[in-house]
């Protein structure tokens, strides 16, 4: 599998097929190559300025909605974002049907870009975002008598935008486009800016959450035996400059839409972040020409051989974490949540996070002891991986520091508060140590496995595929496979063995730490301590800023750790 692939059969080095970039500011350059490089920089500059202006305009609208809801309403922000979505849709359709179909448009494909796990994430989060928009449409349709038509139009356009963008990223995330460079860069930057604004709106807009929480609180009061409100299942709807009283005609359907909306809300923010990362790599690859002499002859493949303790410990962490998560969800959704489940939840993290930190520190030390040289070749995907790991870690680190301040300022000697404090401190340390380990591993040059190991493994596979195994031979074949596994494991050097064990253990740990907050375990918001300290709206913004970044960090760490595992 090569780092770069050319679609045509002929070699892409043929200069007659290369469309050199031109820009009017650099038309007097002495050489074609110099003019091409200057034009590429100018195109990146102007497309970047376009994205900056769009982001600032959208941020101004969203900020005005937050601080002056009379002049700028949520409907105005939705209208602006709908216009941006429509423009992005037109550009994506033009790219699919026009730009990418031109002769020699895609001479190169970056095999580092658009890994299967990140494209799968686009599909997963995109599907959940579509369901989120469906729930929002259904909820607004039920309350159509007191909600504006924009509340139905905006998610409808959102569904079309998500489907088109997911298809575009799945099929074209590896493209190194060689035609219409500036128009392609501007289209990609406009799409990135639109996704960033959608993420910013999701982080800061707590209107529907406040509405749903007030309704759920009223329902809980009814179950608790208190006097019910004169308007069952009511909500205040902000329509323009007026505030009207909404009454849900069907409580059951409204609760289904509300629960679904709350559950799927984090996936929408994740979808925006993942799309921005993929689109940015595509933007960097516009006009890029990949030379074949930088391509290594072989690319290591994922093999489970050579690891024993990592999968065992990791699987144990996943199983225990799944049990803790189910207990937490059962208690958190009950009318009277037990504080004991928060103690169990924090205790699980307090045991797991130090193990992960110790593993990352040991792995970093082994990297330092190894004599592998650093890979200094230009690689936009790897550079972005490093930036995303560092940036996404700021979400959990930021939330942890806010939580530490609130806990220390209130009552750190309380059992639950002391556990939460330990959890926050350990989380910061674990993020830092894991980042150092993964980034160091990503910059190490790949060392292919020993020839003897590969030859024997290939011989075993050929032997298994050439002859049919009967029922009587099944036990013997299993025994041979086990002996082959033990042979490969024993022939690995101790450094490579420990690195693979640590990487696999951290992969499984990050998977369970991704699953738990993604599917509803949010103790930082649900225990109420930080929320009462900072206030609902402030803590809502902090959590909605940090939580999606934290989930994205866990997901991105899995990809980086798998890369470290494969290259060990």
Automatic annotation (TrEMBL):
Q: Which GO terms describe its molecular function?
A: proton channel activity
The regions listed as transmembrane in this protein's record are 45-66, 78-97, 117-140, 152-170, 182-202, 262-283, 304-328, 348-366, 386-409, 421-442, 502-521, 533-553
Q: Which Pfam families does the record cross-reference, listed alphabetically?
A: Otopetrin
Coiled coil location = none
Family per similarity comment? Belongs to the otopetrin family.
Family annotation (PANTHER family):
PROTON CHANNEL OTOP (PTHR21522), PROTON CHANNEL OTOP3 (PTHR21522:SF36)
Which protein, by its recorded name, is this? Answer: OTOP3 protein
Protein species of origin: Sinosuthora webbiana
Q: What is the lineage of its organism?
A: Eukaryota, Metazoa, Chordata, Craniata, Vertebrata
Gene coding for it: Otop3
């Amino acid at each position: 599998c090569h780092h770069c692939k050319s679609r045509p059969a002929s070699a892409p080095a043929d200069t007659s097929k290369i469309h050199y970039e031109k820009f009017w500011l650099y038309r007097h350059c002495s050489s074609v190559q110099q003019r091409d490089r200057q034009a590429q920089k100018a195109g990146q500059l102007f497309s970047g300025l376009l994205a900056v202006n769009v982001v600032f305009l959208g941020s101004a609208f969203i900020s005005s909605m937050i601080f002056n809801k009379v002049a700028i309403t949520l409907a105005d922000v939705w209208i602006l974002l709908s216009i941006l979505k429509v423009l992005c849709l037109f550009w994506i359709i033009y790219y699919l049907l026009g730009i990418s179909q031109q002769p020699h448009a895609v001479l190169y494909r970056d095999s580092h870009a658009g890994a299967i796990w990140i494209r799968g994430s686009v599909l997963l989060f995109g599907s959940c975002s579509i369901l989120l928009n469906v729930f929002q449409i259904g909820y607004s349709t039920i309350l159509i008598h007191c909600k504006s038509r924009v509340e139905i139009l905006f998610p409808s356009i959102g569904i079309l935008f998500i489907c088109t963008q997911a298809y575009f990223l799945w099929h074209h995330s590896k493209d190194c486009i060689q035609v219409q460079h500036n128009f392609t860069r501007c289209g990609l930057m406009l799409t990135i800016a639109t996704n960033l604004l959608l993420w910013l709106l999701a982080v800061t807009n707590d209107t529907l959450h406040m509405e749903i929480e007030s309704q759920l609180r009223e329902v809980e009061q009814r179950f608790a035996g208190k006097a019910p409100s004169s308007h069952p299942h009511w909500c205040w709807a902000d329509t323009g400059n007026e505030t009207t009283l909404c009454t849900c005609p069907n409580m059951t359907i409204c609760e289904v839409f509300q629960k679904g909306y709350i559950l799927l809300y984090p996936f929408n923010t994740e979808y925006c972040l993942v799309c921005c990362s993929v689109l940015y790599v595509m933007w960097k690859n516009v006009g890029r020409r990949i030379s074949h002499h930088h391509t290594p002859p072989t690319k290591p493949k994922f093999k489970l051989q050579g690891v024993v303790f990592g999968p065992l410990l990791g699987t144990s962490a996943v199983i225990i974490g799944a049990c803790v998560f189910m207990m937490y969800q059962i208690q958190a959704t009950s009318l009277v949540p037990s504080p004991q489940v928060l103690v169990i939840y924090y205790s699980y993290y307090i045991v797991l996070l130090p193990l992960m930190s110790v593993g990352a520190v040991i792995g970093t030390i082994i990297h330092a002891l190894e004599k592998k040289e650093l890979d200094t070749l230009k690689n936009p995907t790897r550079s972005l991986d490093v930036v995303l790991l560092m940036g996404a870690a700021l979400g959990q680190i930021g939330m942890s520091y806010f939580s530490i301040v609130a806990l220390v300022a209130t009552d750190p000697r309380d059992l639950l508060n002391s556990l939460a404090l330990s959890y926050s401190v350990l989380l910061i340390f674990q993020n830092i140590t894991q980042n150092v380990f993964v980034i160091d591993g990503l910059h190490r040059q790949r060392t292919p496995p020993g020839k003897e190991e590969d030859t024997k493994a290939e011989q075993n596979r050929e032997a298994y595929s050439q002859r049919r195994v009967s029922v009587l031979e099944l036990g013997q074949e299993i025994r041979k496979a086990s002996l082959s596994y033990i042979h490969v494991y024993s022939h690995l050097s101790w450094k490579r063995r420990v690195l693979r064990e640590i990487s696999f253990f951290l992969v499984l740990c990050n998977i369970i730490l991704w699953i738990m907050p993604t599917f509803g375990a949010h103790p930082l918001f649900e225990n109420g301590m930080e929320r009462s300290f900072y206030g609902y709206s402030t803590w809502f913004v902090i959590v909605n800023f940090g939580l999606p970044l934290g989930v994205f960090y866990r997901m991105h760490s899995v990809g980086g750790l798998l890369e470290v595992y494969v290259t060990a």
